[in-house]
Amino acid sequence: MKTVGLSAILIVGILLVYGTLDFPDWGDPSSPANRYVSQDYIENALHDISVPNMVTAILADYRGYDTLFETVVIFTASLVCFFILRTKRKAPEARFYRHIPTGITLKIEKGGRLPEGSFEFERIDSIWIPHDLIVRTGCRMVVPFVQLFALYVVAHGHISPGGGFQGGVIFGAAFILYALSHDLREGLSRFNEKTAILLCSTGVFIYAGVGVLCMLLGKNFLDYGALASLLGVESALARSHGILAVEIGVGISVMAVMVSIYYNLSSAGKQDEGL
Amino acid sequence: MSWELDILILTLVMVCGIGAVTVKDLLGASILFGAYSFMMCLLWAIMGAVDVSFTEASVGAGISTVLFVSAIFRTTRKTSD
Amino acid sequence: MDDLISLIVARYNYWVYIVLMMIGFYAMIVKRNLIKKIIGMGIFQTAIILFFISIGAKRGSTIPILIESHPGKEFVVHAADYINPLPHVLMLTAIVVSVATLGVALSLAVRIYQKYDTLEENIIHEKTMKVHSKKRG
Question: Partners for A (CB, 8 Å, 3+ pairs)?
Fold first, then answer.
């Protein structure tokens, strides 16, 4: 197997190196990739859309159709993880409880169960790590600032590097941090699985909904200039607001997808005990 | 930017890549993969692709490493290969 | 000889990216463990994204965010001052798709482990062959 692998990569590598002999030099401003369409985009972005960040302008306006289907792809990935891994929650063979004042752990076999919400006993995982006070308190203080930064990245995507996708990932990472430092069950009680999957589809719905709204107002699908009559501003500013609405949709969807994939993967489908 | 910085980071990228593939402990391999993602993010920031570098820093060095570690937690950590 | 040196200086970046791609490709073919194959896939994907980004780089230009956001009437944008933003947009979609694929691949690996109790590809192959021959004969 190793000789097959080595010979395959040598053949493919030499073919690729032979192909690079025709390439333009690295960093050449007049190479074919840097002329034609991208020159038009750079020169007209501020005039047509009034958004200084050219990457966001191309992503959400000139090539907005691609971004709609990218959001659908990541929504489909969260559904696939759900279908592959999620199993029914069977009653576990043994539950473990810990008496908080003295630190004694109990193991209760099948059938027995302590009442929920009792103050002296807490439920622990079968692979129990002592919950550290410093880690819990530190992460609890950091999580709101991470979420605030994520909202800033989504809202400021026009002017600085950022945008819907980056802000959504950071927001999802804040929830994953909470579920990691505390228990998975506590994370589930704050942001449960049904809300996560509902928010995934809401994000895609917002994106497609803005496109259909533009179509109902008389222009093409995802042509944000049609929003000028609805909002009462000129066409370039209306396109900028259309980009903001679409980025919010992408951010919501990506956040819910990241959290849902983490819940399914870290508990192998049962959503009972986690990392 | 200067070509010396370019060559230094490219060498680090190759070392991290070869290390992630060769190490026998799966947890170490996933952490090295996270380091490889972060070195790539620096390389793109040098080349001027700030949006792509931001995305790779949050996705590759953040979410991707967490997903690998939770998958290894649910399967096995040793490998003989 | 001079020609060869100038050729190497102009093109060495592309050759380093090809070496990175081949490291990922080798890991996907040769390694027996499923998680190592997934790591190889990740290395291959990021190396291709690096190759695309390097096509759009221009010498002596700045990042693709316009300098003036509320310009006067005579403000003209020169395309040679800014790095080409189009490969960046395509590669943002590629990174999103790569994390989606990673999530699905890891879910499949966890499910395979639940059923066969191992992640080595040759042992899984033996077990499926045994079940297959039992069903036949």
Answer: B, C
